Fold:
Amino acid sequence: MRIVLYLLVTGISAVVTFALAIVIWKLSTRYRLYPKIRERDVHTRPTPRLGGVAMFLGMVVAFAVASQLGDFSIVFTEPGKVLGLFGAALIIVLIGVADDLWDLDWLTKLAGQVIAAGILAWQGVQVSTLPIGGQTIVSPYVSLIITVFAIVLVMNAINFIDGLDGLVAGVALIANGVFFIYTYLLQLQAQTEYFNLASLTTAVLIGACIGFLPLNFHPAKLFMGDAGALLTGLLMAASAILVTGQVDSGFVARPDQFTASLVPAFIPILLPFAVLVVPLLDFGLAITRRLRAGKSPFSADRKHLHHRLLDMGHSHLHAVLIFYGWTLVVSLGCLAYMFMPWYLATLLIAVGLIILTVITLAPLSKRKALEAVAQSTGGADAAADVARYDGLDAAAADDEPSDEVDHLITDPKEARA
Structure:
């Protein structure tokens, strides 16, 4: 089966990433290539942040092997796109490593991201058409601007949630797993090219996440840093853009051949947002929150979604698993529209969201019960104890960040708490 070749590439990416991650972890520990522990950090021992280098090298080796497999030859018939992807990835990794070691200012990092996205778009990875009727949506220059904006947005959205051990690697693994299933179904149903750059990029990224996660899961021995988070966002954005360009617009415009619902015609647009729903939500809330406070959108604070979950009373592991759950429900629910009636897919999403909402808010119910007991007994000391350990109220009441938070850099992983 042809799927075996994708599994082979994924396995190579995973093995190489895992092996190099161990080497980088040991070298970083020996030569102390990590920042000092600060009061605001959750981890109690110095932790290297160069895991993104292992992920990048794992990707390089996996692509190199794929280029030698005859079935993948069609992917490399457009070398400009492949080279553009590698060039953009290399720039992002170099910028990320520099930031992980020396803390670059936000303007330098943003400039590097724009350059990387521009190289990728200039080599043909662009949002130029909608997969509905094959309509050209913009002129080439406007398409270039939209593509650069979309890639930079996704990179920063992924980087924003990189605040807990195993969070980005796990969310990316789930999201890209669902996205690969979509591309596979698309190849079967819409008769698109089976071996393509979008699927190959997704498979390689899945392997990199699998290989990196064992060292990154709580308690983490190695962080992916900006290099890994931005690289993950870049590859996810690139694969989504490539998929929208390869869809047979005439096919998806005739939904009767796929299902009785019109939704599949919009799947190429909806699914990338679905698999990125958590990062994009956190990114949007953070930008809105900071602008309303009169601050730079790139200033850091301790009010990201993962911080809120910890403040609500979830453990580190539970908070990460909740993020996994939200990503899985929304992305699989969106994918379900492809092979089941719309009302069943909608019901599936609704049930999943209700269950996750209950799980997410469970600590609040427990806290309210404790508060009710304290109030009923009339014990001032008990009420004070409850309030003292009520991290969410404390965080919510803290309208202005403390001096310590003011010193945080853009990345929320620097504010692990």
